[in-house]
Amino acid sequence: MKLVVFTAMVMALVLTPNSLILASKQPAGSERASSSGNKANKMVALTFDDGPDKKYTGKVLDILKDHKVKGTFFVVGERVKQYPGVIKRIVQEGHALGNHSWSHSHLTKLGKEKIRQEIVKTDDAIREITGFAPTLIRPPYGDSSAQVKEEIHALGHAQALWNVDTRDWAASSSVADILKTVKSSSGNKITVLMHSGGGKRDKTLKALPQVIDYYQSQGYTFVTMSELNGVADNMKGSTASTGDTDVTNGGTDATKPDLSADTAQSDDASVITERNIHLIYNGSEVNFPDAKPFIDENSRVQVPVRFMAETLNFDVKWGANGSQKNIILTKDNVNVDLKIGDKAAVVNGTQIDMDTSAMILHERTYVPLRFLSELVGMDITWSSAGDTITLSYKETKDDNSDEDELTQIQPAQSGDTYIVSTPRATVQQAKAWATAKGATDVFIDLADIVWDEAPQVGVDPTVVYCQFAKETGFGKFGGILDETFMNPAGLKTPVGGSDTDHEAHQRFTSWEEGVQAQIDHLALYAGAPGYPKTFTPDPRHFPGLMGQAATVEALGGTWAINPTYGFEIVKMMMELQATNS
């Protein structure tokens, strides 16, 4: 088994917790503050439906930023896929995300399976971009039923409605009408419905600053909807309520138990998300007789440490330094020290940051699945519908390739076309070569970015550009990806998946981001100085890949299964270098 050292810098598999909330839709003004002097407890959540879009959502974000106010955005899955950059901005600026279905359909008119698809597809789209799936879901039109709520809860979500509808979506409503509705409502906990997409929202943009000013003048604190109701928010790591009791916006304020701390040494069942997780390893489901995988308070999958001992053949020892407990995992030349409750591991003497901690629960020790998979070089495939996780080892060769061809190629894997090198050709040669090959205008123009960025990290831009040409057909694509992915090298998402699944491939927010990700991935493979990087758009920047292919020839069988992959790129490079500018 090949062992690789791992830094959990990538986004992990995310599932949703079991905290549930039903924020009941009520007539405006139905809840009144108990006293005018109780301003310290007055909170309002501004929520925005039907985004993202390329016009209004950004302007709503600008207004919130100017006023230093956080909001909750209930986004439509189809639009999430169209505007990933807007989703990233929402999260980066500290706002919360909610699920608003895939196609904005009336969920009450759909069967159970269709309802689940609407929810799960949107979760997956958000997770692909952010690394997290939201806790809250708002059914389109506020149209819910017993069946809808049952499916929402079964998927671990909380239904989130509102108690102040500004009707900013209505053609008959004016800015004055929106403000009148807002001012006619009061109470200690208010959820305001507005919109950031899905139609013309100029009235929303005009009214929003005045809505904010009004609530501030009345002593309200602006919070996300999860914070308002004490529900765990995967996007922000906020506090969580325990149990399955529904909470309404019109209810009394409850004390919120703090489950957000990193330490997880107590035997506390309330941190578990009760879902039956199936783990497939080597084609068979793993049987966990006395301790099963679960989802922790950070929405990460944890697996019993005995899986590493009994199935992966690690030697496992327990230790303690005072009150601090730790696990020592050893196998071959790898030594891992995991401190319980600490989001860091020490691998062969190097501290590695993780996205959640190892923990002890019911006297059983658990380790994060993402950390485990990268430690031993396995890919994870997640099926939301069946709560099934499949672990498989990263392939290094094409099992269907001709044996004689492999025998001939293997000795050349240490070829001398080094990835880390000074430029072998000029940008003018690259453009002339691309033009002669009938490349698209976008592909030709991107040569400037490649020649600007690649030399800064020591990578030969000729390698980058020729790989770009091979992967995209000189910018024409035509395969599983298209130009809208802005993915020049076919990079996959952190979770990955099949080569024939377009959803397994990363969508970048700009060509600049996509090219930088390709350069960083090549530099990582080549073992370039300064790699792995802490901040990179490369979605699969796994330290275990460091130095696996110093030469272009060695990319065959590592970057790609095809053993001739690197040689085909070298041939392109020779053509480019021979081109007169």
Automatic annotation (TrEMBL):
Q: Do the record's keywords include Glycoprotein?
A: no
Residues in a coiled coil are: none
Gene3D superfamilies hit by this protein: Copper amine oxidase-like, N-terminal domain, Glycoside hydrolase/deacetylase
Q: Where is the signal peptide?
A: 1-22
Q: Which UniProt keywords apply?
A: Hydrolase, Metal-binding, Signal
Q: Region annotation Disordered: residue ranges?
A: 237-266
Q: Where is the composition biased (Low complexity)?
A: 242-254
* Domain NodB homology, residue spans: 42-223
Q: A Pfam family in this protein? A: Cu_amine_oxidN1
Q: What is this protein called?
A: Polysaccharide deacetylase family protein
Q: What species is this protein from?
A: Paenibacillus enshidis
